[in-house]
Amino acid sequence: MKTQILLISFLLLSSFVRGEQRATITVDVAHPGAKISRHIYGHFAEHLGRCIYDGFWIDSALNVEKHGRIRMDIVKALKKIKVPNLRWPGGCYADEYQWRDGIGNPKKRPVTINSNWGGVTEDNSFGTHEFLELCELIGCEPYISANMGTGSPESMKDWIEYLNYVGKSALTNERTLNGHPEPYGVSFWGIGNESWGCGGDMVPEYYVNEYRRYQCYARNYSGNNLKKIASGPNIDDYKWMETCMQKIPAHMMWGISLHYYTIPTGDWGKKGSATSFDENEYFDTMKRCLYMEELLNRHEAIMNKYDPQKKVSLVVDEWGIWTDVEPGTNPGFLYQQNSMRDALVAGTTLNIFNNHSDRVRMANLAQAINVLQSLVLTNKEKMLLTPTYYIFDMYKVHQDALLLPTTIDAGNYINENESIPSLNVSASKDENGCVHVSIVNLHSTEKIHTLIDMKNEKKKVVSAKLLTSKLYNDCNTFENPSKVVPLSYGEYKVTKEGVEVQLPPLSVVVLEMK
Ligand code: AHR
Q: Phi and psi for 497 in degrees, rounded to 5?
């Protein structure tokens, strides 16, 4: 490890001497803005492929540390990055999920079909109590997506009473008999998922009426205020957003969701491989990832029209890169590898969310384990942490800190006749007065010598971390799980102008200053 650091330091130091791109980032430490809600760093666990079954929830015979059937090496890894919330049970699965199938004696639970994801058998051994136990072990808040597609207001109402009511009722009695006399106090409550698609193929005018009806019975039991989240638009469906904002008053929804996935080729039929792609496809991926900025600006403009006080949160509860599945795996399981490109997508997207934290107060990467842009991949007893995982580890310093305004003066990354900004950034100040700056260099070949100008604020660098790799498609494998890992980084100097830092191509750097 030491030799690795020395080698990287030498290579980078020598480049200070040769010519390289230069950039300036200003950080306005004196004017902190909105709090960056820790819930922007949320995750998603659907009954899909090997996320729950053979992911979080494993066969008793598997020789790894377990709590019941919950896999503890995963729990420990998620605890370390301070996962603030976990969304469950879907996704599309949520709109066919009958919560009663997943409570009571596991041996008596019905066997059902997961018709959205591969038509596989669902034994319902992982249900409400198991999910809430998982959240407790991770130390995160549950975010439950209620069934609107094939459910009923009655069934949803009962689920909430079962979860949250303190007093005497048949449902609280049942909860007690199932081993949990105390109410769970679940707060984040989604009403429908992708109601414009797998969640019922509704038109927005119909959805808003249904939402209003369902939310009416989503009761606040025993002093626990539900944060009700409406199923918002797909990508750039501005009409859906407009209809929801116009027809659902702010007191009826804590938030409204937005779903946007980065598809490398832009073609859902042939999305592109997770590991085998050229520079054109890398560039296109990053261009599509940066589109999140435009989506947020335009959806927020609509929200501002109806809710200028910003009471309603924008909840990007599905985002991430979606590629073709790994060759030879079940197409319905959405298992994909995760490369340095994924890390750059994560770092860039989280910078965008941080910079929109006055409206974006929650987000959920899809999905936590073995599905889409995962944090963790498993293969029997083996487990690996992906480059994306390390971005969440490096960025956790922004959770609940105050956003600091930034500007960037930098060159572009030009590919053929298109260009995107080489750098993106976000900065925050935490309760101890520490300033954290996270910078992403998307350029595939140029290192960028960057001055961080904090005006008259004099700060010392306390630590710096770097995640980079030679190739955008480098990844961690079960044979070599540590190819892309963060290193502590020394290529910066404090000058009278500010902090000068060298940003290698394809890199994410997080600096801590005090
Ligand atoms: O995350 C995978 C799927 O993508 C979810 O189930 C659905 O909501 C979305 O279309």
A: -80, -25
Q: Which fold has domain 38-399?
A: TIM Barrel (3.20.20)
Write out pLDDT tens, residues 479-497: 999 999 999 999 999 999 9
Strand order in the sheet with 492-494: 406-409, 21-27, 448-453, 499-503, 492-494
Task: Name the residue with the closest Cα to ligand 1, atom 4.
Answer: 91
Q: Which residues are catalytic?
A: 194, 318
* 111-139: burial string, b at 16+ Cβ within 10 Å, e else: ebebebbeeeebebebbbbbbbbbbebbe
Q: What does the DSSP 8-state code read for residue 42?
A: E
* pLDDT per position as a tens digit, 277-329: 999 999 999 999 999 999 999 999 999 999 999 999 999 999 999 999 999 99
d(CA 313, CA 286): 26
Ligand 1 pocket test, candidate residues 318, 319, 334, most atoms within 8 A of CB: 318
Would you list the domain boundaries of the chain?
A: 18-32+404-513, 38-399
CB under 6 Å to ligand 1: residues?
46, 90-92, 193-194, 318, 366-367, 372
